[in-house]
Design goal:
Blueprint (H helix, E strand, L loop, with lengths): L1 E10 L7 E10 L2 E5 L5 H5 L5 H6 L10 H7 L7 E5 L5 H4 L9 E5 H7 L22 E4 L4 E2 L5 E6 L2 E5 L8 E7 L2 E5 L25 H10 L6 H12 L4 E4 L14
Parallel strand pairs: 3-4, 4-5, 5-6, 11-12
Antiparallel strand pairs: 1-2, 2-3, 7-8, 8-9, 9-10, 10-11
The structure holds zinc ion (ZN).
Length: 262
């Protein structure tokens, strides 16, 4: 499967360096599959959709940085997207869902419950149900799934695409692994913010990345279950240590420069 990396949102908070919303566009036999959706065109047209926290992050309003723009740039149309697999449903990951209302949404059962029917008070600001109001087909994957690799388990939601529960950032957070032509690509979502946490290298130079303290601080603030962070980082480190595996985070701009093209 060909795996394309794209920017679906650029966040420019006053208190930290810019962050991206990194999504994958996968050419799958079942159609185009998105891994995460970043911010959508409706969010950029009206940032009030993102709520108070979203507005604080000051997203760029350039519609060329959306999953829809990435899909169109590849020569496809929005309706070619048949499935969307999300790491979680925070507003900076689920915003593009409304650009692909016909797509089947895959998420963990825990995440869907947290975002819809069993939202706890501290979670109210992070989920924006308007973002998936037009999504009608939701597949909720319950439990840990089948043993996968490196001590992890997962749900094969489509051939070659595995949803790997990795709770912590949210109660139902997961990583998403895609068997790409050039090796396994693991989208870690927000299981790590700073890619140096798990020893990632600069994709251009191959040099080991340095720490980004501001991104790490934000990770701690935004984490629902902070006691799980270290275990998740260790799991990502084990995966990334395999030369045939590339682990990417959602927000570290060094893994996908702000001006990256599809
Ligand atoms: Zn995020």
């Amino acid at each position: 499967m060909r795996v394309h990396h794209a920017v679906a949102g650029v966040l420019r908070p006053r208190f930290a360096a810019p962050a991206v919303c990194h999504v994958l566009v996968v050419e799958h036999e079942a159609g185009l599959v998105l891994v995460d959706t970043g911010l959508g065109t409706a969010d950029l047209a009206d940032p009030r959709r993102l709520g108070p926290v979203g507005r604080m992050l000051r997203p760029d309003r350039d519609p060329s940085t959306t999953a829809l723009a990435a899909v169109l740039a590849l020569g496809h149309s929005a309706t070619d997207v048949t499935h969307v697999v999300v790491t979680h449903l925070d507003f900076d990951h689920a915003g593009g869902l409304s650009d692909f209302p016909q797509a089947v949404l895959h998420t963990t059962a825990t995440e869907w419950a947290a975002a819809t029917v069993a939202t706890h008070a501290p979670e109210r600001l992070r989920y924006r149900p308007v973002q998936w109001a037009t999504t009608s087909d939701v597949r909720r994957h319950a439990g840990p799934g089948e043993p996968w690799r490196d001590g992890l388990s997962g749900h094969e939601v489509l051939p070659g695409i595995v949803l790997v529960p990795m709770a912590g950032h949210t109660r139902g957070h997961a990583a998403v692994a895609v068997e790409g032509d050039a090796g396994l690509v693991v989208h870690a979502g927000d299981a790590a913010f700073d890619a140096s946490t798990f020893g990632a290298c600069d994709p251009g130079t191959g040099e080991v990345l340095g720490k980004l303290p501001a991104l790490r601080a934000f990770e701690t603030v935004a984490c629902r279950q902070p006691w799980r962070l270290r275990r998740n980082h260790a799991a990502l480190r084990r995966l990334d240590a395999d030369p045939a595996v590339t682990v990417v985070t959602a927000h570290d701009p060094r893994q996908l420069p702000v001006d990256a093209e599809v």
